Amino acid sequence: MYTTVEEKINKTVEWLREQVKISGTKGIVVGLSGGIDSSVVGFLIKKAFPENSIGVIMPCKSNDKDRQDAEAVAKAAGLDYIVVELTQEQDKILNKVIDTLNEKNKDTKANYRLTDANLRARMRMSTLYTVANSLNYLVAGTDNAAELYTGYFTKYGDGGVDILPIANLTKREVYEWGRFLGVPQSVLDRPPSAGLWEGQTDESEMGTTYDMIDDLLEGKEIPEKDKKIIEKLHKRTEHKRKMPPMPPKF
To answer: Cα(55)–Cα(32) distance, rounded to whole angstroms?
Structure first.
């Protein structure tokens, strides 16, 4: 059993190299959001593949601070990166679909914000795979153990990846790795957010905190209110963690 952060990071780097070798690819790409999870993954893929790793920053109706933090991460890690602006393309698809549905008198208002947010995540996924296919790379996901358990990711968006390097880490462990790796302080200090809309934060949307989720995953006692919220999220998002259902052979 590996006990120190450095040992665990080194073993994860070895694992990343193995995954690329097994897949017959050349390297790894990750989307950089300016948040702690993608930052840690960015540092890890750079360690694993100094010459064959790249970060992709994908502004899409985003706050300028997200791009600034993402660029700071790439520079701190020495990670090559590109910026692909997606706002206009996302707007075109969203507006075309909504206008077409409205012509059929379909009500699109109730789910508009979520539709908008999920389309951003899915366009980023498509962009990452376009980069990955072009370079013969794998797409690294950035979900941690807390996000996977609660289903706090977009199906076929940030959940559409090839490998999940930090899937076994609690959120507090992600921060621990981030401090060890040298993630910029501006990223360490910012509240976790998927950047889905102005003022959005993970914890306000989930209705509980990462500390509560981490404690539950570690087998600790937590308030019943938080436990109910977390287990409800877990049950409701079970479909995200499985292949789509298929009928039996008739």
So the answer is: 6
How many Å apart are CA 219 and CA 50, to the nearest integer?
37
Of 34, 60, 42, 27, which is closest to residue 189 (Cα–Cα)?
A: 34
- How far is 12 from 198, CA to CA, in rounded Å? 34
Please tell me the pTM assigned to this model. 0.94
The two structure tokens encoding residue 104: 């059929």
pLDDT reported for residue 204: 80
pLDDT score recorded for residue 59: 96
Q: What residues act catalytically?
A: 37, 147
Predicted confidence at residue 1, as pLDDT, reads 63
Q: Do 28 and 16 touch, CB atoms closer than 8 A?
A: yes
| Ranges of the chain whose pLDDT falls below 50 | none
Edge to edge, the sheet with strand 81-83 lists 81-83, 53-57, 27-31, 137-139
Residue 164 has phi, psi (to 5 degrees) of: -125, 85
